[in-house]
Amino acid sequence: MPNSERLLVLLRHGQSDWNLKNLFTGWRDPDLSPTGVEEATEAGRRLKAQGLTFDVAYTSALTRAQHTLALTLAALDQTGLPEHRDQALNERHYGDLCGLNKDDARKKWGEEQVHLWRRSYDVPPPGGESLKDTVARALPYYCQHILPDVLRGKRVLVAAHGNSLRALVMVLDRLTPETIPSMELATGVPLVYRLNADSTVASKDVLTA
Ligand SMILES: O=C(O)[C@@H](CO)OP(=O)(O)O
């Protein structure tokens, strides 16, 4: 009998080498830092402490999310879980900012402009994607692949990125272009959603330390 929990867990990858160096990353592909490795394992421990297990996982085409997923599943004793990888779940493309230091960017373009590029809904960084653009490619993937699995009773874990997950959280939590800028996702902190049959959110738990 399919379970009726309609469980969806969203997990931002652990700290990457470029998070540590404070560089815009986007679709560049650094791996996890040692702290990130620990955060990913700790995420698995927290999920396990809640008694949660999964039937299927989704992740991006980028190493830091895939590595996070592997470490989290290992901590859950669920290595080998069916896994779908797709660039629809990749980080927002940061365009010309990729590889630049975020503090250097603030000095060059000003605090306010850099904040708009990083957190506004519809101001794209030069040559890159706004959050609105990210929603436009992550949401169809969610609706066509992830949500149907959740609604048919599969317990789903998604390991992805700060902004591709902000795109999904914006929809799940019904945030607006006015409220989304203040929404930050910490690395390695699982967001545990349970959905109603109509795909709205029944409950949300943030598994912080
Ligand atoms: O550099 C990036 O790709 C992202 C996530 O690390 O940065 P920001 O938090 O500035 O959107």
TrEMBL record:
Pathway: Carbohydrate degradation; glycolysis; pyruvate from D-glyceraldehyde 3-phosphate: step 3/5
GO biological process: gluconeogenesis; glycolytic process
Residue ranges of the TM segments: none
Gene source species: Roseiarcus fermentans
EC number: 5.4.2.11
Active site annotation, chain numbering: H13 (tele-phosphohistidine intermediate), E91 (proton donor/acceptor)
Quaternary structure note: Homodimer.
Positions that bind substrate: 12-19, 25-26, 64, 91-94, 102, 118-119, 162-163
Protein name: 2,3-bisphosphoglycerate-dependent phosphoglycerate mutase
Catalytically driven reaction(s): (2R)-2-phosphoglycerate = (2R)-3-phosphoglycerate
Alphabetic keyword roster: Gluconeogenesis, Glycolysis, Isomerase
Coiled-coil ranges per UniProt: none
Family that this chain belongs to: Belongs to the phosphoglycerate mutase family. BPG-dependent PGAM subfamily.
